[in-house]
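Sequence design from tokenized structure. All designs in this work follow the same two-part layout: the structure record, then the generated sequence. An example of the structure record is given first.
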């Protein structure tokens, strides 16, 4: 995928496994500087073409036998280098200084009690007392050779230092975490005052470059792409369409487990965007295959298998297709290259399965360099409807994993009604954009109720709304009681077969967002 590499200035982030590495990358990208994350032990071949380097933090200690050792021979002293946390300790410990266990494990907010008055560019515009965020249990007792202390806190004498005669900087605190109030300022000082990088990573430049690359990569060949109604596949399709027009053949499958009216509405939207798209209503095929299945993983596998069959049937109708377009984004790429190796969870969550190997299609992934927020920004630049770009994530298996137990067309219809009432009300009350993901779950139990003089024995539904950044952790949303009351009344009055509504107040972990 080398033709996917950004041709403007590039910064390299060497990852030592810190949970904050992606956050560093996002902060740098927010400053319109393109950066790539590479594992500390797999330096890119074209390392010379990177303008500067940042070393990330790590869960390891430089003093332990498990310490991670990068090869910095092409970097240190040769390019601007900013070492964060573990990186700072690494440069000290193996550069003639000393790292020792701290008396206390430092975690949380603290303040810079001293900033070297030599006006070093790294601290330009940052005043003494600035709040920084620490997370470490080792401390730099003695600086490495030629080390000059740049800042201290009450507990950490060497909170920041530089190496004399080099553009090598090291900081113990985390500038990428928002609790470091001048963190972005410090990063921008490093990028622009020390490394002199031109900030040219913008959505416009990305679109221009990607469209040109796609034209060259694909030439006059045909591309097939599965649209899901989600942000990633839509933006990938629009980019490809801009590059190769109707050589792009999109397939949008209705698995019968989408939201109410979703298939028809989204298909119309796609057509309105000029995409060459075929809508395939395979609801019956999916629901027949799912009949009687209750185990969540079995449901997922069945949906994945039938999706591939349906997609495969359709793809074969497009003669001479050579490429499969996919909406893979950067976090998936990083995950597959991670210091700790690929994680199983991400894979089972993939929306659209790959095609069988025998189709031998080459893969084209126009978004593989982008974080999710960047996909949305690019989508805006491409003129995609903001409502579509702001949609909540929706799982590939759709309502199948929100109907606990076996799935029938009747249950799907009930859940679609409930879900639509909830989602429409969120939109009406302007709460939709404050929530990361919301939906309803049909529980496999009936409960007793009264309707007039009659006793009822009907279904229970749960409502779920969460706040999250990436779905890995999530908090339930404190929706107003009045709102919940109104939604509950509407559901019970309007949806036949439901007599009870509950609200899920569990966070992830230990609960998950979906119930299955
Ligand atoms: P959990 O339930 O694991 O969900 O907390 C985290 C995020 O992943 C979505 N999810 C899925 N997405 N296929 C998908 O495409 C799946 O099988 C699947 N299971 C969960 C979920 O909606 C949430 O956004």
């Amino acid at each position: 995928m080398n033709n996917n590499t950004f041709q403007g200035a590039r910064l390299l982030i060497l990852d030592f496994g810190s949970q904050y590495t992606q956050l560093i990358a996002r902060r740098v990208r927010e400053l319109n500087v393109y950066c790539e994350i590479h594992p500390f032990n797999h330096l890119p071949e074209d390392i010379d073409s990177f303008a500067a380097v940042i070393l990330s933090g790590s869960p390891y200690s430089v003093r332990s036998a498990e310490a991670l050792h990068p090869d910095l021979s092409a970097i240190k002293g040769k390019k601007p280098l900013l070492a964060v946390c573990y990186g700072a300790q690494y440069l000290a410990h193996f550069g003639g200084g000393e790292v020792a266990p701290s008396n206390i494990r430092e975690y949380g907010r603290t303040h810079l009690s001293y900033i070297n008055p030599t006006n070093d560019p790294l601290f330009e515009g940052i005043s003494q007392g600035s709040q920084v965020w620490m997370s470490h249990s080792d401390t730099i007792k003695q600086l490495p050779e030629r080390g000059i202390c740049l800042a201290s806190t009450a507990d950490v004498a060497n909170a920041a230092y530089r190496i004399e005669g080099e553009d090598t900087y090291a900081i113990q605190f985390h500038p990428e975490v928002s609790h470091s109030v001048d963190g972005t300022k410090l990063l921008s000082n490093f990028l622009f005052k020390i490394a002199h990088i031109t900030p040219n990573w913008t959505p416009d430049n990305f679109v221009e470059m990607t469209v040109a690359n796609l034209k060259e990569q694909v030439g006059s060949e045909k591309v097939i792409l599965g649209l899901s109604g989600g942000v990633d596949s839509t933006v990938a399709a629009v980019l490809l369409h801009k590059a190769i027009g109707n050589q792009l053949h999109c397939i949008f499958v209705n698995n019968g487990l989408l939201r109410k009216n979703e298939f028809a509405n989204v298909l119309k939207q796609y057509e309105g965007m000029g995409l060459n798209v075929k809508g395939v209503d395979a609801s019956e095929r999916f629901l027949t295959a799912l009949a009687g299945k209750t185990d969540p993983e079995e449901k997922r596998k069945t949906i994945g298998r039938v999706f591939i069959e349906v997609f495969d049937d359709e793809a074969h109708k497009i003669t001479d297709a050579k490429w499969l377009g996919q909406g893979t984004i950067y976090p998936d790429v990083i995950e597959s290259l991670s210091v700790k190796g690929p994680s199983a969870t991400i894979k089972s969550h993939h929306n659209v399965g790959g095609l069988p190997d025998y189709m031998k299609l080459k893969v084209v992934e126009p978004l593989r360099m982008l974080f999710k927020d960047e996909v949305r920004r690019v989508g805006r630049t491409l003129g995609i409807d903001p409502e579509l770009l702001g949609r909540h994530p929706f799982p590939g298996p759709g309502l199948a994993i929100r109907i606990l137990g076996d799935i029938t067309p009747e249950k799907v219809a009930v859940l679609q009604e409930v879900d639509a009432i909830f989602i429409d009300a969120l939109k009406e009350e302007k709460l939709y954009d404050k929530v990361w993901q919301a939906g309803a779950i049909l529980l496999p139990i009936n409960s007793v109720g009264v309707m007039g003089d009659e006793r009822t024995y009907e279904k229970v539904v749960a409502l779920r709304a969460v706040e999250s950044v990436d779905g890995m952790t999530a908090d339930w949303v404190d929706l107003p009681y009045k709102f919940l009351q109104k939604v509950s009344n509407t559901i019970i009055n309007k949806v036949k077969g439901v007599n009870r509504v509950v609200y899920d107040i569990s966070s992830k972990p230990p609960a998950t967002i979906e119930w299955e």
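Residues 296-317 form the longest helix (22 residues). We note this feature because it recurs in several other targets discussed in the main text.
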